[in-house]
From TrEMBL, chain A:
NDH-1 shuttles electrons from NADH, via FMN and iron-sulfur (Fe-S) centers, to quinones in the respiratory chain. The immediate electron acceptor for the enzyme in this species is believed to be a menaquinone. Couples the redox reaction to proton translocation (for every two electrons transferred, four hydrogen ions are translocated across the cytoplasmic membrane), and thus conserves the redox energy in a proton gradient. Belongs to the complex I 49 kDa subunit family. It catalyses: a quinone + NADH + 5 H(+)(in) = a quinol + NAD(+) + 4 H(+)(out). Its main location: membrane. This is NADH-quinone oxidoreductase subunit D. Residues 156-441 form the NADH-quinone oxidoreductase subunit D domain. It comes from the Bacteria. Its EC number is 7.1.1.-. It is a peripheral membrane protein. Transmembrane segments: none annotated. It is an enzyme of class 7 (translocase). InterPro entries: NADH_Q_OxRdtase_suD, NADH_UbQ_OxRdtase_49kDa_CS, NDH1_su_D/H, NiFe-Hase_large. NDH-1 is composed of 14 different subunits. Subunits NuoB, C, D, E, F, and G constitute the peripheral sector of the complex.
From TrEMBL, chain B:
The keyword Oxidoreductase applies. NDH-1 shuttles electrons from NADH, via FMN and iron-sulfur (Fe-S) centers, to quinones in the respiratory chain. The immediate electron acceptor for the enzyme in this species is believed to be a menaquinone. Couples the redox reaction to proton translocation (for every two electrons transferred, four hydrogen ions are translocated across the cytoplasmic membrane), and thus conserves the redox energy in a proton gradient. Belongs to the complex I 30 kDa subunit family. This is NADH-quinone oxidoreductase subunit C. Its EC number is 7.1.1.-. NCBIfam families: NuoC_fam, PRK07785.1. Residues 11-21 have a biased composition (Basic and acidic residues). Residues 1-21 are annotated as: Disordered. Keywords: Cell membrane, Membrane, NAD, Oxidoreductase, Quinone, Translocase, Transport. Residues 99-220 form the NADH:ubiquinone oxidoreductase 30kDa subunit domain. It catalyses: a quinone + NADH + 5 H(+)(in) = a quinol + NAD(+) + 4 H(+)(out). GO terms for molecular function: NADH dehydrogenase (quinone) (non-electrogenic) activity. InterPro entries: NADH_DH_suC, NADH_quin_OxRdtase_su_C/D-like, NADH_UbQ_OxRdtase_30kDa_su. It comes from Kitasatospora cinereorecta.
Amino acid sequence: MSTEYEVGARETTEGRVFTVTGGDWGDVVEAAARADDERIIVNMGPQHPSTHGVLRLILEIDGETVTEARCGIGYLHTGIEKNMEFRTWVQGTTFVTRMDYLTPLYNETAYCLAVEKLLGITQDVPERATVIRVLMMELNRISSHLVALATGGMEIGSTTLMIYGFRDREVVLDIFELVTGLRMNHAYVRPGGLAQDLPPGAVDQIREGVKLLRSRMHEYDKLATDNPVFKARLVDVGHLDLAGCLALGATGPILRSTGLPHDLRKTDPYCGYENYDFEVAVADTCDSYGRFLIRLEEMKQSLRIVEQCLDRLKPGPVMVADKKIAWPAQLAVGPDGMGNSLDHIRKIMGTSMEALIHHFKLVTEGFRVPVGQAYAAVESPKGELGVHVVSDGGTRPYRVHFRDPSFTNLQTMAAMCEGGQVADVIVAVAGIDPVMGGVDR
Amino acid sequence: MSDETSGVPASRKEQPHREIPVEVVGRRQGMFGSQDSGDTSGFGGLTAPIALPGASSRPYGGYFDEVADELEGALEEQGLVVTDVIEKTVVDRGEATFHIAREHLLATVRTLRDDPALRFELCLGVSGVHYPHDKGRELHAVYHLRSITHNRLIRLEVTAPDADPTVPSVVSVYPTNDWHERETYDFFGLVFEGHPGLTRIMMPDDWLGHPQRKDYPLGGIPVEYKGAQIPAPDQRRSYT
């Protein structure tokens, strides 16, 4: 039997296990079927380009049909929640930003909103800090959705969509780099406000970026929205209706693709979202195509919100006035990236003993947060990102739990894929848009 | 009159001891919370209880009263004694927490989901918290429920002792909690009875221990940074 693929078989306690490399699915399935075993279980991933990171899909297939589908997760578990219990409250932002690495500013903001609720300083966060948070979050929504479209396109063979998506995401990442010093893992949003104000030239660059992105949005419509091949792959794939979404806890574009306009920015506004003018994108198709249309529309709405943010920006502080909470350090861009401002270090080291003591106490010891628990939720590009924070009155979190939307949404994979084709699994998972950094934490 | 003999006003006597509505989960020592070196501040002998916000009394404010009324009414209709089911209600920082007895959790969440006046359709998972010093109630399971119909959010809290770490699974009511309960089991050792397949989800299947319990060390190794040895995070000097 000479073929261009190789099937290795070995006996295990679970039965015969085939290891297949290369070749076409049809050949693979045929070869495995010849082995006189009616039940075939295929492990897709954890190292597979179309599984969005280290996701392992365990598919039981019959011919081309998936009869049962399960997820294996945990390959990217880094113990962030546990680690945060050994760091100060401020250091927590540097951890949460690494959870869902495509939506770092949402993780940071959600965490900071919860900490601020515990501190009772929600009302004291300066207006400018809140506007910049919204601005950065909405830019982040665009970059996250662009990756969802880009990788989703690549997985069904549309490399143009991939190139377009990553090209436009670069515009957003350049803005992030200018503002926070980093393209990802920003740790920009801090309890009480922001790490620092917008640098000179940022507003102009954001305005230009918004203009550029808006001029390119129609390219996605031209390339994909009415493309018959694209529609043939996405329409009616990954079907999940409203009852299924609520039972399985799916939120975000998956829930809105059933026609329910549930968006925390509208229903439970935070960061002053009630003052912005935007529409909630919905579709009524319950499928991957509807989710694609929603993401496209949400990017356009986010551009609107970003422009409104720029118009609202008024000069002012970006950190709470309470010196017992406000981070005393000042940052500056040095030759090796963002770091402590040498001018500020020189000032506190050389001229003010009190400032030095204050700085030292707040940086090494941190501030104390009153005993209690709080839950804060934001509408991340993937759905409801909830943070449950418990404090025992100490300088470190007693417990931080993230309800990551990717984690919950990924549970819908089985409901979407069982009974469908193997090739549709890829499309359905791309429609869920899971990011394993968020799933496994 | 007994009032005159004891010298205590009648109003005080009728309420012999007003319980302070707090829940002590630990004790803090010293001025700065440092434990690895001597406290030279002179306040090393200070101890203070770590007390979570205690039970609130009516009115709770906002929609919480309505939710509590509807829930209590619905539970009574089912023949349950409300005080047996809801151990206490805590309203703190604009959030309501209903502490539910674990044997009645399933009936409570089913009521919360199905009662038209409550209709909490969306469960936002379960978050475990380990309080090793909260004797007899070491493990807490915290649920957040969202009602899209009424635009409400509440929290349920259930406790279990370390000696019997079981809580009924709510997967039959909220299938979304399948993975959430597996995660909480994995990290806290809390066994959700009635879960369709309670296995580890993040840690390897043969892992020993439950990493997010407070008695499980963080671990780590010292690292060299700019010429100095920095100890592992849980070995560093700290001020809790």
